[in-house]
Write a structure and sequence with these properties.
Blueprint: H1 2-22, E1 30-33, E2 36-39, E3 44-46, H2 47-52, E4 58-59, E5 63-69, E6 87-94, E7 98-104, E8 110-116, E9 121-125, E10 131-136, E11 139-147, E12 158-166, H3 172-175, E13 186-190, E14 210-212, E15 218-220
Parallel strand pairs: 3-5, 4-6, 7-13
Antiparallel strand pairs: 1-2, 5-12, 6-11, 7-10, 8-9, 8-11, 12-13, 14-15
Length: about 350
C-alpha cells in the first residue's frame, strides 16, 4: 500500500507540472519547433517599447499589440508609432525553423507581410487571401502591418491589432501527419485577446473597439475575458461593449476611459483609477459590474448611470461626485468605508443603510 501511495503521489506531481507549463497564459505559450517540443517564456510587446529601443526585436511567439493608424491620418506626436502613418513595421527574430499555418481573422481592415532581410517576401495576407502555409527558417525578419482604411472623422482613426499564437486548433497535429517535431500552430492576427497578459504596459489612448467592415461598418465589443491589465496605463482608451469577465485591472489607470456597456462581471478592479479628467468623465453607463471586486477603487466623477453593481465588493471605494443615476447596488457585499458624497443618486437601488464608515449613503 505504501508503494501504491508513492506512485499515486508521483503521478499527481507530474500532472500538476504539466498543467503549470501548459496553462500559464499568453506570455508562456509552449511552442513546438524543429528541434523538438520546448517551453519558452514569451513577452508582451507594444509599439512604445519598439519605439524607445530601436534594437529591440520580437520573438516569434511574443504577444505583439499594435496601435495601427488609418492611412493619411493626422500626425500625432503623443502616440508612439512604428514606420510610417498607416503602416507599422515590427522586427522579428526566428530562433528555430517552424512550419506553420498563418491566418488572419475575417473582416480585417489591414494586410500583413513578412519579409526577409534580403527583401524576399515569406508570406503576404490580405482580407481576400487570409491564410498561408509556410516554413520559416532562423533569422531576422520584418513584419509589415498596413491599414486598408482611409482616415475619417467618423471614428478614432486607429485600430488595435493583436498578434499572437492560437494553439486551439485540435486538428493541427492530424494535418501534420502526427509528427510532433514540427510546429503547426495557427499564428493569428486578430482583434480579441481573451486570457492575455497585458499587465504593466502603456496603452495610452488606444482604441480597443473592434471595427468590422464586411458586410458593413460597425463597432463591436472585443473579448478580453480573463485578461490581465494590472498596473497598465489605459487612460482615454475606448473599451465600449467589451467583455472583461474575470479580468484583472488591479491598480490600472483608466482615467477618462470609455467603458460604456462593457461586462466587468467578477472582475478585479481593486485600486484601479477611473477618475474624471477635467470635463472628461470615465464612462461606465450600462455596464455589468456584478460581483466585481472594487476594494479602494477610485471612481471620482465617473458616470455609472444604469449600471448593475449587484453583489459587488465596495470596501473603501470612492464614488465621490459620480453619477449613480438608476444604478443597481442591491445586495452590495461590503460597503465599509465607501464614499458617496456629492454623487448623483437619483433612482438608485441599494441597501437601506450603509455599513461601518460608509459616507453620505444613501
Amino acid at each position: 500500500m505504501k508503494t501504491l501511495n508513492s506512485i499515486l503521489i508521483l503521478i499527481t506531481l507530474v500532472a500538476v507540472s504539466i498543467y503549470a507549463v501548459t496553462f500559464t497564459g499568453c506570455n508562456n505559450n509552449p511552442l513546438t519547433s524543429s528541434t523538438g517540443t520546448t517551453s519558452k517564456t514569451y513577452q508582451t510587446r507594444t509599439e512604445a517599447e519598439f519605439k524607445s529601443n530601436p534594437n529591440l526585436k520580437a520573438e516569434w511567439g511574443d504577444l505583439i499589440v499594435l496601435n495601427l493608424e488609418d492611412l493619411h491620418s493626422p500626425v500625432n506626436d503623443t502616440i508612439p508609432d512604428l514606420d510610417i502613418i498607416g503602416e507599422d513595421m515590427v522586427p522579428i527574430v526566428f530562433s528555430d525553423t517552424v512550419t506553420q499555418q498563418i491566418a488572419m481573422e475575417d473582416s480585417t481592415s489591414y494586410k500583413v507581410k513578412l519579409v526577409k532581410e534580403s527583401g524576399e517576401i515569406v508570406f503576404e495576407l490580405t482580407p481576400e487571401n487570409s491564410q498561408a502555409n509556410v516554413t520559416i527558417f532562423p533569422g531576422n525578419y520584418k513584419m509589415y502591418v498596413t491599414s486598408l482604411e482611409e482616415f475619417s472623422v467618423d471614428h478614432s482613426g486607429r485600430q488595435t491589432v493583436f498578434i499572437n499564437p492560437d494553439t486551439t486548433d485540435a486538428n493541427a497535429n492530424n494535418r501534420n501527419g502526427g509528427q510532433n517535431n514540427v510546429s503547426y500552430v495557427r499564428y493569428v492576427f486578430h482583434q480579441d485577446c481573451p486570457g492575455c497578459n497585458l499587465s504593466n504596459k502603456d496603452f495610452y489612448d488606444y482604441d480597443f473597439t473592434a471595427r468590422k467592415y464586411r458586410p458593413s461598418f460597425m463597432v463591436v465589443g472585443r473579448n478580453f475575458a480573463g485578461a490581465n491589465f494590472s498596473n497598465s496605463n489605459l487612460q482615454y482608451t475606448n473599451f465600449s461593449s467589451a467583455n472583461f469577465q474575470n479580468a484583472n485591472f488591479r491598480s490600472a489607470n483608466l482615467k477618462g476611459s470609455n467603458c460604456k456597456g462593457a461586462n466587468f462581471r467578477e472582475t478585479d478592479l481593486s485600486y484601479a483609477n477611473f477618475n474624471k479628467i477635467g470635463e472628461w468623465p470615465s464612462d461606465f453607463r450600462n455596464t455589468d459590474m456584478r460581483l466585481a471586486l472594487m476594494h479602494r477603487a477610485s471612481l471620482i466623477g465617473a458616470d455609472l448611470t444604469s449600471s448593475n453593481l449587484q453583489q459587488s465588493y465596495m470596501f473603501y471605494t470612492n464614488f465621490r461626485n459620480a453619477n449613480l443615476t438608476n444604478a443597481d447596488l442591491r445586495y452590495a457585499m461590503d460597503m465599509r468605508g465607501a464614499i458617496y458624497c456629492g454623487a448623483i443618486k437619483t433612482g438608485i437601488q441599494g441597501p437601506q443603510f450603509g455599513q461601518d464608515g460608509t459616507q453620505c449613503w444613501p
